[in-house]
C-alpha cells in the first residue's frame, strides 16, 4: 500500500500515522504552556517593552532622537526595514515557489515560515512609518483626494511603489497563510474540550468540514495564490532595491540591484527560518517533522543564494572600475578601505566566506553548525544593508559635508525592540496556532513513512512494502544515519 | 429540516477511492465525502467538475490592472498634471510596478473572497460536523437516507464490503 523509496530519505520520520500527526501538532496547542515557552516569552516581552519605550521617545521628541544628520539622512531605519522585509521573503519562497516546484519537503516548514513572513513585514513596516515623524498622517501615502490635505501621490516615485508592494505583499501573505490554517483550525476545533477553545477554534475555522468539493477548491486557490505570490515576492524586493537603484547616488545607481537584493533577501530569510526552526523543533519536539534532511536542504538554498550575493558584491566592484566613473570608483574603494572598513569586512566574511563551509556534508547535517551559521548570516545581511546605505551616503560629492553616522540608544532600542515584537508574535503563534501544516503533512505521509503501515486497525496484519527493515516501535527520535546518498 | 445520513468510515484513501467507484457503480448517490486532507483523484471519482475559480481570478486580475492604470493616468495625467523629473505626465514605464502590484492584489483578494463565499466559509459559533474524526484521520462518506431509513441495511452491507471500518447513522439539522 505504501511506497518507500530505497534511495530517498523519508520526509517525515518516526513512522507516524495520520492520527499521530494530529496528536503531535495539536498537543502543543492544547497543553499548558511549558516552562521554556514562558521563559522565551518573558525575554521577548522585555524587548517589546524596549520597543515601546523607544517608539515613545521617537514620537514624543521626534526623529532627532535618532543619530541621523544632514549627510546621513537614512541609516538604521532603512537598514532595518530592508533587513526585515528580506527576512520575510523566505516564507513566501517556501510556500509559493517550492509549491510550484513540487518540493514536498516544504510541507512541514511552510506554516511557520509564512508566519515569519507576516511578522517580519510587520516589523519592517514600523521603520518607514516611524521615520515619517508624524505617523498619524501615514494615510498620506495612499492616493486620496486632494481635499484631505495632500496632492495626489507621485506614482513615479519608487518610495510609493514600495507602499503598494509592501501592502500587497503583507495582505496576500496574510490570506495565503490564513487559508492554509483553516483546515487545521477545524482539526483543533473537533478535538477541543473546553467551551472557550471550542468557540474560538470554531470561529477561526470558518465552519470548515473537509468536504471533497471544499478541498478541490482549496487546492485550486492554493495553486493560484502560489502562482501570483511567486512574481509578487520577486517584485517586492526588486522595488525595495529600486528605492536605491533609481537614485543617482554612487554605489546605489546600479542595474544589478534587483536580482542582487532578491538573492540577498532569500539568503537572509532562509537564515532566519533556520534559526527559528532549529529552536522550534527542539522546544516543541518536532524532530520527526523537521528532520536533518530539511535542515540540509535549507542549508543548500542558503549556500546558493549566498554565493549569488557574493558574485554580486564582486560584480559591483568590477563594474565600478570598468565604468571609469570616478565617483563610482571612489564609493567602492571607500566602502572597502574607508572608515567603515569594519562593516564591509563583516559583510564579506559573514555573507560570502562563512556560508561556503556548507559544502562540507558534516556541516550541512549538523544542528550546531547550522544554528551558528544562520546567526552569522543574519548579522552579515544586516551589515550588507548598512554598508550599502551608510557608506554611500556618508561621503557625498562635497567633502565639507562628509560625516560619520553613530546610532543613539533610541536607534538601537527601536531595532532591538522590533526583535522583541517579532519573537513575541512568533511565540504567540507557536502556542495557539498549529505550527506545522497538518493537512499537508498528512498528504505526504503515506508515501514517505519509513516503517509500519500508515494506519492501524483492520489492516494491521498488512506487511509494510518497504525495503527498509525497521524494528517496529523504534522510538521517534532514533538516530538516523545518512550514509546512502545526499 | 432534519436530514438523515449513513456514514461510511474509511481508514485509507485508496480504499476510499475504490469504495466511491463501487458505491456510485451500484447506483447510490453520494452526498459528500469528508477527509482530513485533499485526496488526489477524488474529484474524478465523485464527478466533481473542475473549479472555475481560475477564470474568476483572471477576471479580478484584469480589473486590478485596469483600475491601476486608470488611477495613475487619471491622477497624474488629467486631474492634477505635474512635471516630475522632466518626464511626461503619463510616464507609463513608471506606472508598471503599481499596476503589477494592484493586479496581484485584486487577483488574490477577489479570488479568496469568492472562495470563502461559494464554499460557505465564515466565522461561526458552532460547526456541526458529520464525524469529528474526519478532520483527524478518518475518511467519511455520507449518503443521504429517506425518512424511514429503508436503504440502510443494504447500504451498510455495500459499504462494509468495500472496506468501511464502521457504518454509522447521523441526523443533521439544517436551517
TrEMBL record, chain B:
InterPro entries: ActD. The chain crosses the membrane at residues 55-74, 94-118. Pfam families: ActD (PF11821). Keywords: Membrane, Transmembrane, Transmembrane helix. Signal peptide: none annotated. PANTHER family: LIPOPROTEIN-RELATED (PTHR40394), QUINOL:CYTOCHROME C OXIDOREDUCTASE MEMBRANE PROTEIN (PTHR40394:SF2). This is DUF3341 domain-containing protein.
Amino acid at each position: 500500500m505504501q511506497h518507500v523509496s530505497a534511495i530517498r530519505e523519508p520526509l517525515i520520520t518516526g513512522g507516524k500515522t495520520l492520527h499521530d500527526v494530529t496528536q503531535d501538532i495539536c498537543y502543543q496547542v492544547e497543553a499548558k504552556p511549558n516552562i521554556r515557552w514562558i521563559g522565551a516569552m518573558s525575554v521577548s516581552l522585555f524587548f517589546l517593552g524596549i520597543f515601546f519605550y523607544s517608539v515613545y521617545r521617537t514620537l514624543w521628541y521626534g526623529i532627532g532622537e535618532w543619530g541621523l544628520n544632514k549627510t546621513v539622512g537614512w541609516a538604521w531605519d532603512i537598514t532595518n526595514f530592508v533587513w526585515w522585509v528580506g527576512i520575510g521573503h523566505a516564507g513566501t519562497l517556501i510556500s509559493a515557489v517550492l509549491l510550484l516546484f513540487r518540493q514536498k519537503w516544504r510541507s512541514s516548514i511552510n506554516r511557520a515560515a509564512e508566519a515569519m513572513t507576516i511578522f517580519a513585514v510587520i516589523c519592517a513596516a514600523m521603520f518607514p512609518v516611524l521615520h515619517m515623524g508624524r505617523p498619524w498622517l501615514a494615510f498620506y501615502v495612499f492616493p486620496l483626494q486632494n481635499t484631505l490635505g495632500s496632492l495626489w501621490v507621485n506614482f513615479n516615485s519608487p518610495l510609493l511603489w514600495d507602499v503598494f508592494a509592501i501592502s500587497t505583499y503583507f495582505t496576500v501573505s496574510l490570506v495565503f497563510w490564513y487559508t492554509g490554517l483553516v483546515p487545521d483550525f477545524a482539526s483543533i476545533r473537533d478535538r477541543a474540550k473546553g467551551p472557550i477553545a471550542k468557540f474560538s477554534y470554531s470561529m477561526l475555522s470558518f465552519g470548515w468540514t473537509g468536504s471533497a468539493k471544499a478541498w478541490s477548491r482549496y487546492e485550486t486557490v492554493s495553486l493560484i495564490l502560489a502562482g501570483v505570490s511567486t512574481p509578487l515576492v520577486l517584485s517586492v524586493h526588486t522595488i525595495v532595491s529600486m528605492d536605491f537603484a533609481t537614485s543617482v547616488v554612487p554605489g546605489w545607481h546600479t542595474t544589478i540591484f534587483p536580482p542582487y537584493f532578491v538573492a540577498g533577501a532569500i539568503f537572509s530569510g532562509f537564515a532566519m527560518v533556520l534559526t527559528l526552526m532549529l529552536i522550534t523543533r527542539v522546544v516543541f519536539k518536532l524532530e520527526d517533522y523537521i528532520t536533518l534532511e530539511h535542515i540540509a536542504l535549507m542549508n543548500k538554498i542558503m549556500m546558493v543564494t549566498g554565493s549569488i550575493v557574493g558574485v554580486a558584491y564582486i560584480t559591483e566592484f568590477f563594474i565600478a572600475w570598468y565604468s571609469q566613473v570616478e565617483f563610482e570608483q571612489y564609493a567602492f574603494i571607500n566602502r572597502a578601505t574607508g572608515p567603515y572598513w569594519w562593516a564591509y569586512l563583516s559583510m564579506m566574511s559573514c555573507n560570502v566566506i562563512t556560508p561556503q563551509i556548507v559544502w562540507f556534508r558534516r556541516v550541512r547535517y549538523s544542528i550546531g553548525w547550522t544554528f551558528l551559521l544562520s546567526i552569522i548570516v543574519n548579522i552579515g545581511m544586516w551589515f550588507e544593508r548598512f554598508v550599502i546605505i551608510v557608506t554611500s551616503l556618508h561621503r557625498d560629492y562635497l567633502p565639507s559635508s562628509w560625516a560619520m553616522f553613530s546610532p543613539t540608544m533610541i536607534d538601537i532600542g527601536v531595532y532591538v525592540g522590533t526583535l522583541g515584537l517579532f519573537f513575541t508574535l512568533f511565540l504567540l503563534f507557536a502556542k495557539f496556532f498549529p505550527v506545522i501544516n497538518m493537512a499537508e503533512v498528512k498528504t505526504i505521509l503515506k508515501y514517505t513513512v519509513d516503517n509500519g503501515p500508515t494506519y492501524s486497525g483492520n489492516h494491521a496484519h498488512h506487511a509494510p512494502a518497504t525495503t527498509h527493515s525497521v524494528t517496529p516501535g523504534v522510538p521517534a527520535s532514533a538516530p538516523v544515519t545518512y550514509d546512502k546518498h545526499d | 429540516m432534519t436530514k438523515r445520513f449513513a456514514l461510511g468510515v474509511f481508514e485509507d484513501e485508496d480504499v476510499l477511492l475504490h469504495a466511491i467507484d463501487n458505491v456510485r457503480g451500484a447506483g447510490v448517490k453520494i452526498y459528500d465525502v469528508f477527509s482530513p486532507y485533499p485526496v488526489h483523484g477524488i474529484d474524478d471519482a465523485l464527478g466533481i467538475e473542475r473549479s472555475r475559480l481560475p477564470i474568476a481570478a483572471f477576471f479580478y486580475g484584469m480589473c486590478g490592472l485596469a483600475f491601476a492604470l486608470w488611477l495613475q493616468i487619471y491622477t497624474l495625467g488629467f486631474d492634477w498634471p505635474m512635471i516630475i523629473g522632466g518626464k511626461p505626465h503619463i510616464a507609463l514605464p513608471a506606472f508598471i510596478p503599481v499596476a503589477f502590484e494592484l493586479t496581484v492584489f485584486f487577483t488574490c483578494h477577489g479570488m479568496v473572497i469568492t472562495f470563502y463565499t461559494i464554499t460557505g466559509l465564515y466565522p461561526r459559533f458552532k460547526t456541526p460536523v458529520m464525524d469529528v474524526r474526519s478532520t483527524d484521520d478518518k475518511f467519511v462518506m455520507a449518503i443521504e437516507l429517506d425518512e424511514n431509513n429503508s436503504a440502510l441495511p443494504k447500504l451498510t452491507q455495500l459499504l462494509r464490503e468495500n472496506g468501511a471500518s464502521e457504518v454509522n447513522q447521523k441526523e443533521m439539522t439544517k436551517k
